[in-house]
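Lab notebook, entry 1021. We have the chain sequence and a SMILES string for zinc ion, and the next step in the workflow is to get a structural model of the bound complex before anyone spends time on docking refinements. Request logged below.

Task: model protein plus zinc ion, output C-alpha cells.
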Amino acid sequence: MASQPPVQYNLMSPSIPNATGTSQPPLLQRPITSNGIGQPSAGSRFPVPATSNSVPVSATTNSQWARPPVSSQFAPSTMSQPSFTAAGHQQCNPAIFGQDSPRPVLETQSSGRPPSSSSGPPLNNYQSGQPIINGNLGPPLANGVRTPTAYSGVNYATPATSSMGYSSPGVPPQYASQNFMPPQLHYGSGPPMGRPAGPPVPQQQYSTGYPSYSSASGQLPPISGIHTQQLSYPAAPVLPNAPVNQFQNFNSSIDKMASQMNTMSVTQTGFDKIWGHENVDLLQVRNILPAQGVETPRIRLRQEHLNNVHCSMDIFRCTLTKIPETNSILQKSRLPLGVLIHPFKDLTQLPVIQCQTIVRCRSCRTYINPFVYFVDQRRWKCNLCFRVNDLPDEFQYDPMSNSYGDPTRRPEIKNATIEFIAPAEYMLRPPQPPVYLYLLDVSHVAAETGYLKLFCDVLLEELEKIPGDSRTQIGFITYASSVQFYNLAENLNQPHQLVVSDIEDIFLPCPNDLLVNLNESKRLVIELLEQLPLRFNNTADCNSALGAALQAAYKMVSPTGGRITVFQASLPNIGPGALKPREDPNQRAAKDVPNLNAATDFFKKFALDCSGQQVAVDLFLLGGQYMDIASLSCASKFSGGCMYHFPSFHYVHNLPQVERLEHSLRRYLTRKIGFESVMRIRCTHGLSIHTFHGNFFVRSTDLLSLPNINPDAGFGLQVSIDENLSEVQNICFQAALLYTSSKGERRIRVHTMCLPIASTVADVIQSADQQCIVGLLAKMAVDRSLHSSISDARDAIVNVCVDVLSAYKATMSSAPSGLYAPSNLRLLPLYLAALLKSVAFRTGQSTRLDDRVFAMNQLKVLPLSQLILSVYPDMYAIHNLHDQGAISQGEMVIPQPPRIHLSAEMVDSTGAYLLDTGDVIYLYVGRNIHPAFIENVLGSSSFQSLPEQMFELPELETAESERLRNFLVHLQNQRPYPAVLQLIREDSQIRHLFSSHLVDGRTESSLSYYEFLQHLKNQIK
Ligand SMILES: [Zn+2]
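Result returned:
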C-alpha cells in the first residue's frame, strides 16, 4: 500500500441524521451468496460440496465444461461459451487456406439476422446504391468465389438464433449455395496468394509506397527463411522523402495518401480529416506502425464536463468507443463487442473514502458514479436502470470544503475509479488474515533444476515485504513419493519435519502449527528456508504426488481461506490426480493439436472446492519435460489463481529462466493481494454480458468469485445488445470489486465506464479500438481452440479481418480498389497476422504442447498492454540513439527511438535492436556493429568478446551508454515489475529467441504481413 498513497476522505465525522432512511447498505453479494465468506457450514454456496474432494462435481458444474445448449438464454457459464460460432454445420462456407471446412465467423451478438437488401434501412447517406455490408448480394463471381457470409453461424449466446431457424436441424441454410469457393491458399506449400479467376484487379493506382503487387503475375516474394533480407515485402521503390529505414510520422504519410486519393471527393476527405476519420490503403503504406506508439482512443461524450472523469483506459476498455444503438448495426459492423478490465491494477492515485452510507441504486445496486443524472439536489437517476433514487443527507456534505450543498462535489461524482472502506454490512465474517502456503516439488527432477535454492533465497530476502499484518500465517509442504509437513511452532528449537506416506488418503499429521503466525515463528521459518535446499539436494525419488499435497494444503488453508503457491517441475505421476504423458513430440508442427483440454477433472474439482473456501491456487511451472499444463492449469483457472511458466528451468544451465523466475517471484511475493474477493460487473439496461474470460468461477450471472485478486490479473467479457438504445445518450459499465486487504480491511473498488451511442455503421467502425479488439479476439480464439480446433480458431481470426474490412468498404462513398481500413483500425490486420503466428495459434512450426497451452492461458489473463506486447512486441533500433525529440524526466533525458516493423528487412547486421516482449527485453547485436557501440555501450572490445550471457548493461560514462540505459529505465517503468534484459549476439545459438518474433516476415508455414494483406484483399468483395 505504500505504493498507493490514497487520497482518503474520512466522511465519518459529520454526524448527520439519515432522515430518508433509504440507504441501508446492502451486501455486494446479493441474495444468496453466503459465498464461502462464511465458515464452511453452508454447503449450498457452490455446486460442489465444499468439504469433500471425493464428491463428484454436480451437474451444474459439469455444464460449465460442456458447450452451452444452443438455445440457452445466454446463460453465463464459467468459462466462456464458444465465442466464435461453431461454424454452422449447415453452412458450406469457403475455406480460407485451402481447407474444405465450414467458414467460422465471429459471432458475438445475440441475433443472427440474415443479411438482406431489404432487411433494414440504408445504413447512412453514403450507402445508397452500395451493396449492404457483409452482403451476400454481390453477384457470385465466376468460379464460385465466396461472398462474405455475415450471419452464418450458430449462435450459442441467445435464443434469438434458434428463432431465426439457424440452429434447428432440418432448416435449410439460406445462403448455402453461394458459399463455396475453391481452395485458394495453403500455408506451407505452393505459391500462396493465388487469385481465383474473376474480374481483373485494377493495378497501380498510386505511385508511392508499395508497387502494385499482382499475385496473378507470379511476382511472389521468394520463399525461404525469414532471416534473409527483402523477404517480408517485395522490393519497393524508395521515395525520396521516405527512405526505407526512416520512419516518417504516420500522420504525414496519411496526409500524403489522402492527397493522392482520387476516389474520394475533396469535400468528403476534408470532412473525414476534421473528424479524424481518414482511411488508409494498407497495401500502399509501407510503415503502418506509428513510430511513437499506438494512441489509445478517447471516449468523447456529448456532455463535455464528463470527459474529464473517464476511467483510465488501462483499467476499463471497450472494443468500441461508441456503442451501436441496435444489434443490427453492430452486426453490420462485424466488430466484436466486449470489455477488457484490469480491476486491481496498481495505481499511483486512488481516492479512498470511508462513509456511513455507500450510495447505491435501490433497484439495481449500482454505485453512485460520475455519470448519474441529478434530478435535483435530493434525487439522482441511476444510469444503469434509470430508477430515480433519493440521496442520503450525508451526501450533501462536501468533505473537501466542509460545507453542505451541491452533491456533484462529492468524490464519488468526481472519480470514475474510487475505493470505499466497507462498513460492517459488507462482511459475513471478520476479514480473514493473510495466509500463505507454499507447496514445493522435491522429486529428483525438481531437485535437479535447483529451483528450491532460488525460491528459498528470494523468499528469505522478501520475507519482510510480504503483504500482511500481525495476523499473517505461513506454512510449507514438500512432496515427492510422500508428503512432508513442517511443524514450525514457536516454542520448538528447530523445524520438525513430519512425513505422511499414505498419499491415497492424505491426512494432517498434527492439528496445529503447520500454518504458523509469521511474526511469532519467524526464526523457525528462516531456519527452514535455509535448510530446505540442502535437505533435498541428492534425492533419488522420481515421483511427484502433487494431488495428495494439494489435498493436504486444502485441509490446512480452508478454515481461513488464503493462497496456495505450487512449485512444480515434473509431471505429477502418483496418487490422486496423477497424470500421464499425452504429447506426441512428432506432432508438434501438426495443423491441429489434440490434448489442449484437461485429461482429468481432478484439478478443476479441486479448484472449485478451493474457491468455495476462499482459497486460490497459483502455479509456478518449471518443467523441462511435458508436464500437462492443460490439466494442471485448471487448479488456477477456476480458483482465481495465476500461473507462471519457466520451461526447462535450470539453476546453472538456463540463466535467462533463472533471471525470469527471480524477477517474477519477487514481484509475486511482494505485490498487493486481495483476499476473499468477488467482482460484479453491471451494464446499462438493454445490454447484457454473456461470456467472461479470465481465471475465476462464475457464481451467479454476473458475480465472479475470486478467492484472491492480484494487480496483474486481467479479465474480459463479451456483451450483446438486447434492446434498441436510441433513447439513451450514453451507456455505462460498472465493475465493483469487493475484497479484504492484507491489513484486514474490507474494501470495494468501483470502476465506471461511460460510452456514447452511435447510430450508423460507419460511426461504429470509426469508433473501434483496435488493440482492445485484438485483446478480446485472442480470448475468443482460445475458447474456440479448446471447444473446436486451432485451425477453426485461425480461420475465424482471418474472417474477422475480412468481414470488418468488407463492412468498412461498404460504408465508403465509392469503392476504390485497394485495401482500405479506417485509420483507427489500420493495425488490425498487422496484429491479427501476428496473432496467427503466436505460440498459441501457430501451426506448421514445432511448438511444445505445454508452451502452447500456457500461451493460450496468458492470452486469457494478461492485461491489454502486456497482451499486445506479447503478440506484437515493440522493436527499436538503438545503435544510433540521439537526443532529438527526447523527453525529460527530472534529471533524465530519455531518447525516443521510433518503433519499427518486426521484419528481418528492418534488422541489419550493422545495427543493434531492442525487442520488448513484455517480461523479456532482448538486446540483439549484429555482427558488423560499429566497434564504438560495443565499446561505449556494452563495455567490450569487440563483437567476438561479447559475453554469451549478459543480463544487464554496464554503467559506462559515455553519452551512448547513458542514453540507452535511460531508455531502458523508461521502458521498465511502464510495467509492474522489471523485465529481464537479455543480450543476443547475431551468431548466438539462441538467436531464434529474437528472430522468431520477426512476425511480419514469411516463414515456411506462414504468410508475410504483406501476403496476408493480399489475401485479405482477394477475399473482400
Ligand atoms: Zn439502478
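Notes for the group: The chain has a mean pLDDT of 78. Worth checking against the assay data. The CA atoms of residues 525 and 675 lie 23 Å apart.
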